[in-house]
Each structure stands twice: as C-alpha cells, then as structure tokens.
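Quarterly update from the structural biology core.
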Amino acid sequence: DGRANDQSQNQLFKLTHRGYTGVYANGDGEKGVAECPFPFYHTWVNDPLEAQRMAEAVTRRTIGVKCCPVAGIPEPKEEEELAEE
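Predicted structure, tokenized:
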C-alpha cells in the first residue's frame, strides 16, 4: 500500500507531518509539524457553510457554468450571472 510504503506520493503523511525533512535535518525532531497552517481548513472543519461562502466569493455560486455545460446540471440563470460579476 502506497500510504505505508511510498515516499513521494504519500500526501496523507505529508499533510500531517509538514516539513519533516527540514525538521529532521535541523535536529528539531523527526515528525514535522502536525498543526494545519491554513485558516481556511480550520474554517471548513468548524463552520462548513462559511467555508462554502468563502469559496464561492472567489469561484462561483452556481453548480453549472454557461461556458461549459454538463448534461443534467442546470446552467446559471441570467440574474445569477449578473450577481457574480
């Protein structure tokens, strides 16, 4: 299993042991930093609706997009597109 044996593609380990190679090389331990440094992820865990609002503020508020339609997903209505501009 890659999670137990891979070095470069072991993202789960790397996410929870950030900087482990530098920490180890400096003699500051061998586990790296476990705490998540990204405020967005803290918000996502503690207030998922706020995280959704934050994401929509820099992406979009509708599930469909006019320029790349997907069968079964509604395109945004004109007023939704205007609200996003």
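The CA atoms of residues 21 and 27 lie 10 Å apart.
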